[in-house]
Write a structure and sequence with these properties.
The chain is α+β, with helices and mostly antiparallel strands and about 350 residues long. The chain has 14 helices and nine strands. It has three domains: about 70 residues, Molybdopterin biosynthesis moea protein, domain 2, CATH 3.90.105; about 230 residues, Hypothetical protein af1432; about 50 residues, no CATH class.
């Protein structure tokens, strides 16, 4: 039986009411279906939907929806699940995938497991912002990139078929790294030109393994092959540009960059939480696909809103509003009231808090 709904003018909405359908404005999600309307969301609704009626669940069903929300996984639970997924993908890469048909069947099952976790999108995003893939640049990284790619595919409103294929491609995007020498892949000292060429060859190694899988759509292997290509031709392995790059590769590239920036690697430490957003915004001006980046950023900032952060001065605050044009300097609420980082240039967000 479908839950009962009521329609209210925006001015009559109250915090705590549960949205009965996804509400979008200018290509971004203001609030997802089944999520409570907060003070911050209400403020944005009044800016965008002054005369529009908004559907919410009736009071009894709102209680039911809140119970459902409580069942969504926590950041810790997602971390445990994704660590388990990492072990699964390690087994697939190292033991199963050499047998072509059974290997891709395992990838399909694995993709379904990841997609089943997307009810907890908020916890997935927060987990990746907090921890990234740690120092696991292959298996946990592939799990994170697959989840982010699938989420972005949903935001781009890909068909179910295309989002499935995208997820397969994202799972396999760094499969080729398992064929590299470990002393090169995990080298602490700067790589030589020859060693860097070996690293870059991981896309071709993976492509050559995947393209011959029977009945597998070619978009999967092309996404793997091209995920390090860039719109301005500065990427690899071919230095192709713009529309020569497959859309799956453009999506995976955004997810790949986002997870890498939020992770510890041999040559670098993870960056502060808003730096990943800033870097993607900057790279959208020539290297990453501009429209896809815009959809990614416009939607993902909604999952930062309401989160607690630690500032560089040691103060704890809550994020109230994020300006996409000045993404690293949101409006915060502190113990002393509102704090606008646009006006406090010497203060920055150090980290998100669990």
């Amino acid at each position: 039986m479908e839950a009962a709904k009521k329609s209210f003018l925006v001015e009559d909405l109250k915090p705590g009411m549960i949205a009965a359908k996804e509400i979008r404005a200018e290509g971004k999600v203001l609030i997802a279906k089944g999520f409570p309307i907060t003070e911050a969301v209400l403020h944005r609704l009044k800016e965008k939907y002054i005369l529009t009626k908004i559907e919410v669940y009736s009071e009894d069903d709102a209680v039911l929806m809140n119970t459902t929300l409580e069942k969504q996984k926590t950041v810790k639970q997602i971390d445990e699940e994704f660590n388990r997924f990492s072990e699964n993908i390690k087994y697939i890469f190292n033991n199963v995938f050499n047998v072509k048909i059974s290997g891709i069947d395992e990838v399909r099952k694995f993709a379904k497991e990841i997609q089943d976790e997307l009810d907890s999108t908020s916890a997935i995003i927060k987990n990746i912002v907090l921890y990234g893939s740690g120092d696991d640049a292959i298996y946990r990284h592939c799990v994170n990139v697959a989840a982010l790619s699938c989420i972005l595919g949903n935001w781009l409103e890909l068909s179910d078929k295309d989002n499935n294929l995208l997820t397969y491609s994202a799972i396999l995007h760094d499969f080729g790294k398992t064929k590299l020498k470990e002393d090169v892949l995990y080298k602490v000292d700067p790589l030589t030109t020859k060693e860097f060429s070996e690293i870059k060859n991981h896309t071709v190694l993976a492509y050559n393994s995947i393209r011959s899988v029977p009945y597998l759509d070619s978009s999967v292997s092309l996404g793997v092959l091209m995920h390090h290509e860039r719109m301005d031709g500065s990427g690899y392995p071919f230095g192709i540009r713009d529309e020569q790059i497959h859309d799956f590769a453009k999506i995976i590239a955004i997810a790949d960059v986002f997870d890498a920036i939020n992770s510890d690697r041999v040559h670098k430490k993870k960056r502060r939480p808003f730096e990943a957003l800033e870097i993607i915004k900057e790279e959208s001006k020539g290297k990453l696909h501009y429209e896809f980046c815009n959809v990614f950023l416009s939607n993902i900032v909604n999952y930062y809103t309401g989160e607690k952060v630690l500032l560089s001065n040691g103060e704890e605050c809550k994020i109230i509003q994020i300006d996409i044009n000045d993404i690293a300097r949101p409006l915060l609420f502190s113990k002393d009231g509102f704090l606008d980082l646009k006006k406090e240039k010497d203060i920055y967000i150090e980290k998100l808090l669990v």
